[in-house]
Design goal:
- This protein has helices at about 40-45, 75-80, 95-105, 115-125, 140-150, 170-185, 200; strands at about 1-10, 15-25, 30-35, 55-60, 65, 80-85, 160, 190-195, 205-210, 215-220.
- With about 220 residues, the chain is α/β, with parallel strands linked by helices.
- The chain has a single domain (about 25-50, about 70-220), classed as Rossmann fold (3-Layer(aba) Sandwich), CATH 3.40.50.
- The strands form 2 sheets. The protein has a 6-stranded mixed beta sheet with strand order 6-7-8-3-9-10, with helices on both faces. Strands 2-1-4-5 form a 4-stranded antiparallel beta sheet, with helices on one face.
- Strand 1 and strand 2 (about 15-25) form a beta hairpin.
- The model has no long low-confidence stretch (mean pLDDT about 95).
- The structure holds adenosine-5'-triphosphate (ATP).
- The site of adenosine-5'-triphosphate (ATP) has 11 residues, from strand 2 and helix 1.
- Belongs to the ABC transporter superfamily.
- This is Cell division ATP-binding protein FtsE.
Length: about 220
């Protein structure tokens, strides 16, 4: 369970990006977060992996307060989270395989079955056998699939994606939305922000709408 309790985020210059946001997300939910540009979506998502910390209030995951986590504990937190953030770009000078392998290297020791995990993640996103290719040779949609493979290679129980379909044409965007749905069906909790809620509406997700740093609407699934 993810809990936000009266979370406030003030950036330097006193800009209030989140003005006191509270909600709970249960295990296995599919949550679509929308809101105008600057509403605070990225800020909210970044609080879950402790990339941003609340100015006030608390964020917890499965009972652990992540808003005040020691720096040394953060890698353990992130090991259980899959992240597809706007800044999580691919390394263009490394193969698709190496890009997806990256989180496995970061966690310290390579699992014995690391290569198998990478292959399984690539297969999961429809890129089986493409590991040797280089990212610049892939379409935008395929690059996004690599980023998603990289996010799921650790088999996280929670997957967070910040506008994963931005810059993709509608057919690719629908494919990517379908991928998230398939992960959700496999039991993964999904929190995805989008400018286009319609991409997910057929699955009747929980819809949360942010406006000016406040939770304006929260439609249960
Ligand atoms: N590191 C930062 N320092 C100062 N202000 C910031 C920082 N990050 C975000 N902001 C400001 O906080 C507000 C919320 O930003 P945020 O990126 O969370 O919104 P968003 O809803 O994700 O927007 P978009 O849809 O454009 O990505 C914006 O006005 C932004 O300029």
């Amino acid at each position: 369970m993810i809990v936000f309790d009266k979370v406030v985020k003030r950036y330097p210059g006193d800009y209030v990006a989140l003005g006191g946001v509270s909600f709970e997300i249960r295990h296995g939910e599919l949550v679509v977060l929308s809101g105008h540009s600057g509403a605070g979506k990225s800020t909210l998502l970044k609080m879950i992996p402790a990339i941003e910390r609340p100015t006030a209030g608390m964020v917890s995951i499965n009972g652990q307060d992540v808003s005040r986590l020691r720096a040394s504990a953060i890698p353990y937190l992130r090991r259980n989270l899959g992240l597809v953030l706007q800044e999580s770009r691919l390394l263009f000078d490394r193969s698709v395989f190496d890009n997806v392998m990256l989180p496995l290297r970061i966690t310290g020791h390579l699992p014995r079955d690391a290569a198998k995990r990478v292959d399984a993640a690539l297969e999961r996103v429809g890129l089986a056998g493409r590991g040797r290719e280089m990212p610049p040779g892939l379409s935008g949609g395929e690059q996004q699939r690599v980023a998603i493979a990289r996010a799921i290679v650790n088999r996280p129980s929670i997957l967070i994606a910040d506008e994963p379909t931005a810059h993709l044409d509608s057919a690719y965007a629908r494919d990517i939305a379908g991928l998230f749905k398939s992960f959700n069906e496999a039991g993964v909790t999904i929190i995805v922000s989008t400018h286009d809620e319609r991409l997910f509406s057929q699955w009747r997700p929980r819809r949360m709408v942010l406006g000016k740093g406040l939770l304006m609407r929260d439609f249960a699934a």
